Amino acid sequence: MENRSTAAHDHWLPASTHTRTTARSPTFGVEEEFFVVDPRTRRILSRAPELLSRSRLPDGRLCGEFSRVQVEANSPVCTTADDALRFLRAARRELGRSADEVGLAVAATGTAVLGDTSAALVSDGRRYADIAVHAGGLRASHVVCGCHVHVGIPDRETAVAVSDHLRRWLPFLVALSANSPFHGGRDTGYASWRTVTWNRLPSAGPPPLLRSLAAHERAVRSLSDSGAILDRHMVYWDVRLSDHLPTLEIRVGDVAATAEEALLFAALTRGLATRALTDVHHGVPAPDIPDQALRAAVWRAARDGLEGSVPDPLTGDCLPGPFAVERLSHAALPGLAANGDADLVSALLDRVRGTGTGAARQRAAHARRGRLTDVVDHVVRQTREGL
After folding, report:
1. Pick from 174, 113, 117, 119: which is nearest to 147 by CA?
2. Which residues pair with 152 in a beta bridge?
3. Separation of alpha carbons 358 and 382, rounded Å
4. What is the pTM assigned to this prediction?
């Protein structure tokens, strides 16, 4: 097969050129969702409010989510990777401390290894209640844990253009962040079951190729008119515009097993967005990748993770995991260099190559004795201590 990885749509401008055209690196923020578990049974528990009541972090940094088996950590606006890593580590330490006080534990995994997500209590609030009724039998699709990265973008028209450029890399980001092979007491056969169950929702999955803010507004209006969403906040695309902040939210990843891997995902995502900003500035159009091809590539990446093959939806190549990582980091490199993150990401990728993804490590923990309780213990320990 012809190697088209350096085709027209895979070029970039040197980092020095980007520096001349952008006053500063984009700011960014990270949201991480976690499961609350019983350290004795290792099953999820609807006791998030008790844990959150013990938090000593400023208001809003730790909060509830759709269900009471989930908690969320929200970083402040960050300008450097060091800023982000300090918060990511501090938030996990505080979640662990608060959980200890009420006899609970916190697990960074995209799906619940043990326990019934359909029985999870919905958090207080009219909006969550309305979403639960609207979702019906799909309610449990909301009971998953992801990692969301917000990247500062100067205006909404530019944000749409950056979103179009990022579509190609969604399968690669899914494979790299895969951390949810087990769900409800079974091995799903997928590296990222969160991706599969989340994408059942009618407004989830890869965003369409939009080309303009007007097209974006038509797409959102179509979702609303059909009844697929209750409001604009229920646009759950893997890359979506914020309605209240000058940011683009990339929400394709499973929650990372460790703070360091969350930083890796965030830095790579910001690097890709930084490169895309340069391309948009210079009038480089985003590749025209059909929705069906992109969804199929995301599905394959969710099934295989980096331990199998990752399709490049632009070239048609089906890449072994190590080559997929190389192509992804190659694409992000100009942005990483401009942001000062190139060496950091290289080092963190080396660690993932050595240890395997979160999904691979979960399966390795299970393989030792065949016990899913060992998987939960492994996840809880990683959440608190890192690799």
Report:
1. 174
2. 247
3. 10
4. 0.94
